[in-house]
Every structure is written in C-alpha cells, then in structure tokens.
C-alpha cells in the first residue's frame, strides 16, 4: 500500500490540482457534487486491484500469476460488450486466443528454464487473489474507457488520484503501519520506491491516451508483453538462462495484437470531448440539433399533409363535375 500511496499522491498533486483550477462544469466542485460516489467506487476498485495482485506474490508462484492474470481479458471483453455495447468479431476472438497461446509459451519457457519463482505457502489463496485482482482491473479499465471517451482524461486521473490517495492512505495506516515503521530507510530503498512510483505515474498518465485511441481490451493485450520485457531485463540483472521460447512467445503475442487492431470493433457513436471541457456543451449542442431536426421534420410533415388535402379536394371536385356531365348527357 505504501508503493500505491506514493503514485496515487503524484496523480493527485498534478491532475487533481488541474481540476481545481478549471472553470465551469469541469471544475472539481461540480464533479464532486454530481459524481463523487461513482469515483469513490472506482478509486476503491483500482486500489484493491493493485493490492490484491501484489499480495498474491506472497502466496503463489510467478507462473500462476502470469497465467491467471490473463483472466482480465475475457472479463474485460464481456464487460465491454454488456456496458459499452462493443461488438467483437471472430477476428478479435482469434487474436485473443493467439495472444494467450503466446503467454502459454512464455510460461512454458519459465518452467523449462527452472525460473518458476515465488512462494507456495498458500497457492489457493494466492490464485484467488490474482483472479480477484483481474476482475477488479477489468472493471476499472471499462470505467476508464467510458470516462476518457465520453468525459475527459484529466477528470479520470484527477478523481483516481484524489480518492486513490485517500483510500490507500487509510488502508496503509490500518493494515501496514507496523511494517512501514520497521523499514530501515536507506537511499537505495528510497530510490527504488521513487523509481517504482514514477513508473506507475507514467503508466497511469499514458494509458488513458492509448485507451482513447484504441480500447481497454487492446491495451491489456499489449500489456501481455510486459512479462517478457521483465524476463529480458532479468537476463542481464539476475542472469536468467535464455530460452528460444521467449522470442517465440513475443512474436506470437505481437501477431495476435496486430490482428486484433487490424479489424475495428463496432461501438455506438460517441460525441468527441476535449480534456478542457465537460460533456455538457456537446450534449446541449446535440440536443439543439435534434430539436431543430424534429421541428424541420414536423414542418415537412405538415406541408405534405396540406398538399395531400388539396389534392383530395381537387379530385373530389373533378369527380363531382364528371357526375354532373354524365347526368346531363343522360
């Protein structure tokens, strides 16, 4: 929780402060008045997702975490289909299967190389924490995709930073205050914590940009390569034994990722919004356009109705005239 608390605090300092100096609907006070409870739940989901996956390393192996963490992708696709109305094609499902096959090759390389690190003290608990974390991550990512595509990136990061800092700080004080007090602070430890916090800050800052350009599912597919890059770093830092399956798994994951993005997903049209404005202006303009269209359609319908009435009267008069002429002939 200390690690999470630091990077949530960095988000709060930058993006929450930006919301404070906004004007109009995008101001932090207006957001808190209308949507505070939604962001509380979102912040709680994100904090506990981070906490659960890190806690799982104490109970289960790295192989289990790598495999079970892929559970986030099917859950994310189901939630996107149900809440965001995203329509996936057969190509997308095939691409996901290819990416998961690449993960399987990576885990197989770990087992063959004897690098199945981690604890085995309580594998069932550890695996359960990974599944819980994957589900919470999926919920958080779906909410992130909806927010950045309909509202703004700054609003999402500002609210996550605010409530993430509060929730992680409370949880840190309740659960881990004794562990934090026992830390023997050295410059190496401070430097490692600072490096971790800066990496997570950069990750949180850039992920909404990619999500807005693609989708949360595509981003999570690309994140499958993260374990591979960690292994490549481990070859130099921890002298891991190299396996050709690492290259194979990287190529397979990249092929699946490219296939997934080559075919666009079908989503309902969304009104584009900027980071500096809320969605009320766009909604108002859309409502005005819809109202104008309705008025035009109603006017056209009235004109058509009057035109039909005139035609009916003329036809009736012609019919009456023909009856008079026929009677005169008789």
UniProtKB/TrEMBL annotation:
Organism domain of life: Eukaryota
SUPFAM superfamilies: Multidrug resistance efflux transporter EmrE
GO cellular component: membrane
Subcellular location: Membrane
Acidic residues bias locations: 274-289
Keywords carried by this UniProt record: Membrane, Transmembrane, Transmembrane helix, Transport
GO molecular function terms noted in the UniProt entry: transmembrane transporter activity
Bilayer topology term: Multi-pass membrane protein
TM regions (residue ranges): 6-24, 65-84, 91-111, 123-142, 154-175, 187-206, 218-238, 244-263
Signal peptide: none
UniProt region (Disordered), positions on chain: 271-292
Family: Belongs to the SLC35F solute transporter family.
Function comment: Putative solute transporter.
The protein's name: Solute carrier family 35 member F2-like
Origin species: Triplophysa rosa
